[in-house]
Write a structure and sequence with these properties.
Blueprint (H helix, E strand, L loop, with lengths): L12 E6 L5 E6 L3 E8 L4 E8 H10 L1 H11 L8 E2 L2
Antiparallel strand pairs: 1-2, 3-4, 4-5
Length: about 90
């Protein structure tokens, strides 16, 4: 998985650089991604996720297990894509 959040499904967007003379050239708006470790209490292990800042806020709000179940249900990630550390 490249630059895609595993919780929210956010990915890079394409837009324009607009100069002072209104000349437009293509550019990429990247996602604010982190590689972060979480302790997954339900399975008693550490997991590593590629997660955006908005995904981090969702985990803080509804919890890790609910956020993972929601992401799998919406198709943003799969259980086999989640990296178990130990």
């Amino acid at each position: 998985m490249s630059k895609i959040c595993q919780i929210t499904g956010k990915r890079a967007m394409i837009g324009n650089n607009v100069s002072h003379s209104k000349r437009r050239t293509k550019r990429v708006f990247d996602v604010n991604l982190f590689t972060k470790k979480f302790y997954y209490v339900e399975q008693d292990c550490w997991i590593s996720l590629k997660i955006s800042a908005a995904g981090l806020r969702i985990i803080n709000k509804i919890g890790l297990d609910a956020a993972l179940n929601q992401a799998v249900a919406k198709g943003y990630c799969d259980w086999k894509d989640i990296k178990v550390i130990g």
